[in-house]
Design a protein that fits this description.
The chain is an all-alpha fold.
Length: 111
């Protein structure tokens, strides 16, 4: 390879590395986007921490671009006034109720 080709290849490799390595978002940037959450920090896993923060930042950008206010849940069901969606008053199906029994038809007790 000629010297110019080697230099061009080195520049190309550097550009590819720059694309693969994302700039870490700062706390100030996340706070400005109203998406800073200290709980996004994952001990001894900086890649997971960065992933969670970048995802939250991306969601904040999407929310702002689509005109949703901070803290809105565009897909959440709307409850009638004076009620809340905290469950149901229906009875639990008997098959879902845990029971303790040792009785099995035809079983002998263990010695």
């Amino acid at each position: 390879m000629r010297g110019a080709d080697v230099a061009a290849l080195a520049l190309l490799e550097a550009a590819i590395r720059d694309i693969e390595v994302a700039v870490t978002l700062t706390q100030q940037e996340l706070e400005a986007a109203h998406c800073w959450e200290a709980d996004d920090h994952v001990s001894r896993q900086p890649a997971m921490t960065e992933f969670r923060r970048r995802l939250r930042y991306h969601q904040a950008q999407w929310r702002e671009a689509n005109g949703y206010p901070i803290g809105s849940q565009p897909i959440a069901p709307q409850c009638p006034p004076g009620t809340h969606g905290a469950g149901t008053a229906q009875a639990v199906h008997p098959a879902l109720t845990p029971r303790r029994t040792n009785a099995v038809a035809g079983a002998e007790p263990m010695p």
